[in-house]
Design a protein that fits this description.
Elements: H1 2-44
Length: 45
């Protein structure tokens, strides 16, 4: 019984961490693409 509660708690913690990680990767990708476009525009001029 206690193992089930502990497993549920760990699963919730892992889901929160995974959500944070995927959000961070999404925003990191968007920001990297914007920076790359800016760099290309600077080099082109």
């Amino acid at each position: 019984m206690a193992a089930d509660v502990d497993t549920a708690r760990q699963t919730k913690a892992h889901e929160e961490t995974y959500g944070f990680f995927t959000g961070l990767m999404k925003w990191g990708t968007i920001i990297s693409a914007i920076v790359a476009v800016i760099v290309v525009l600077i080099i082109a001029n």
